[in-house]
Amino acid sequence: MPTTNRTVHLKSTPRGIPVPDDFEIRTTGLEDPADGQVLIRNIYMSVDPYMRGRMREAWRPGDALSGNAIGKIIATNNDDYAVGDYVLNPAGWSEYLISDGRGIRNVDPELVPLSTYLGVMGMPGLTGYGGLLVTGEFKDGETVFVSAASGAVGSVVGQIARIKGGRAIGSAGSDEKVAQLIEEFGFDHAFNYRTADPLTELRKGAPEGLDVYFENVGGPQLEAALFHMRPYGRIPVCGMIAHYNDKVGAITPGPTNLTQIIYKFVSLRGFVVSAFEPDRPRFLQDMSGWINSGEMKYHETVFDGIENAVDAFIGLFSGNNNGKMLVRLSDE
Amino acid sequence: MPTTNRTVHLKSTPRGIPVPDDFEIRTTGLEDPADGQVLIRNIYMSVDPYMRGRMREAWRPGDALSGNAIGKIIATNNDDYAVGDYVLNPAGWSEYLISDGRGIRNVDPELVPLSTYLGVMGMPGLTGYGGLLVTGEFKDGETVFVSAASGAVGSVVGQIARIKGGRAIGSAGSDEKVAQLIEEFGFDHAFNYRTADPLTELRKGAPEGLDVYFENVGGPQLEAALFHMRPYGRIPVCGMIAHYNDKVGAITPGPTNLTQIIYKFVSLRGFVVSAFEPDRPRFLQDMSGWINSGEMKYHETVFDGIENAVDAFIGLFSGNNNGKMLVRLSDE
């Protein structure tokens, strides 16, 4: 049995894009699980853009970070869990977790690959699924534009739209990712937002306008989408990564053309994945089916070891990842 | 019978705030009504902020302007209408109208004062009613903030919220209007947006946050409201008058804090009054009841004569009106 645990803590509140010195790894002792408890060894942990917001609004310097992880039960004093069970748990950024079972959930390693429970089968997948189909009210055959389309959420959004007989336009930050959107994920049109004009590209890719803009980014892409929305269009707002690292005095401007929503009856709707908890069973069934039929493709970028978790997280903001960004903390 | 008609035409597309020279009055001959037609003499015409948008997007130089008016039938060759009937018609900006009956509707001059069919009983009233209760999903007892609150739409919004047991906060552009909001319209809190800080005022007037922000203005008031929305808050977007007169190179910036909507599940929803056509019967019943019980107060600013219609319209953008801005074209 292991006797020590390593956890990443916030050392200082990041200003702008986080730097390695904003974080530190602390080592603590690890007890055996008491009555009713289990000991979980984490295998994969997730790093996600939403964590940047928590570093401003929830976590204070000194706090341990947390997030989703997939781990294996290696000791148990709880009849509900057996050694060898794989569980989704909230102890990301940590190698081990002692748990009384609250907030953990068994996952089936036979159904789909284990790591996908942090990606297409997990929070990012449900975010894309619910954001498009529930908040975005996407109907079969409609047209969606998704920004940050090669990311863990965006690639799911575009592929679901295609599976539902619709049209998908995506943007990404490099020509390689743009090529991947078309060739691997089957988007109808894609462009590099760093070099192309978004409105020109939207007119090219969706000549009849957009029914849904799945918003991950903010800035000029939101402005272009507002101009190009169809009447009664919907803009589910999942994130605005362009704004996450704003500093005092260097604020990314908001869209100047919000008036576009009035005469077009367009809505912008903020949401967080927790809204879709009631949709989870339908989601897991649909998504595992699409993964196993080959209709749903996904990519992962995997960093190794808790020493590299901070680099993985910071990499999210420079576009270093291709698909879901994960950190492997131990072997399956 | 009159033999000539005067109509206001657009002479040039306004740049920024319209000026008198952007318009001209043209005089044309007036025939007697043919078979199936009626001749209407207009009594009141409406000028409204939405017309500024039409001068950019619909009307070209030379076009006759139009809008809602209340008139009296003075000659008829149509069995559906009698001389002496009062009708709502789309021939505002014009002294007379020959009509075959399409697009006109009888109004009851005994039920409420005639001019209110262009105000609280008409388009602005239905805009406030539907925008608050339908698009804004306002529930009894909730808290609403409405900008441009002393206007024809805004004053209806605040009063309905109060009638429904809720709390109303309003902003206006002068201390006189602010006093009127409190003393006459019964708002719980009001402030002068030209001299007070909106966020400070919202915190004062609605310590527990806003369920609904009824958006008429845009700019810093939208930004303040976004910071102060409660979870699941709704922002029906009726107008953004601060942006209507934007010129190329002098665009009013958008809100820098749209990310606020994500974690609070807030929605912004554009709408136009036409969406509430199905709600009109219920609206007319509710509103006439509130007018006659004295629960619904209203003010009108009346200019006299078609020669002054342009001044009335331009006055909307400098806040010259107190309540609904009307032009009287003839006696009742």
SSE topology sketch:
Two copies of one chain form a homodimer.
Chain A: E1 4-10, E2 23-29, E3 38-46, H1 50-57, E4 69-76, E5 86-89, E6 96-99, E7 105-106, H2 123-135, E8 143-146, H3 152-163, E9 167-172, H4 175-183, E10 189-192, H5 198-205, E11 210-214, H6 220-228, E12 229-237, H7 241-244, H8 260-263, E13 267-270, H9 280-293, E14 300-304, H10 309-315, E15 324-328
Parallel strand pairs in A: 8-9, 8-11, 9-10, 11-12, 12-13, 14-15
Antiparallel strand pairs in A: 1-2, 3-4, 3-6, 3-15, 4-5, 5-7
Number of helices of chain A: 10
Q: In sequence order, what are the helices and strands of chain A, one letter per element?
A: EEEHEEEEHEHEHEHEHEHHEHEHE
- The structure class of chain A reads alpha/beta
Distance separating the two termini of chain A? 16 Å
The beta-strand count of chain A equals 15
User: Approximately how much helix is present in the residues of chain A?
Assistant: 25-40%
Overall average residue pLDDT of chain A: 94
The profile of the biggest β sheet of chain A is: 7 strands, mixed
- Give the oligomeric state of the chains in this entry, treating copies of one chain as homo and distinct chains as hetero: homodimer
Most extensive interface: A-B, 34 and 34 residues
Ranges of chain A where pLDDT stays below 50 over 5 or more residues in a row are: none
Percent of residues in beta strands of chain A: 25-35%
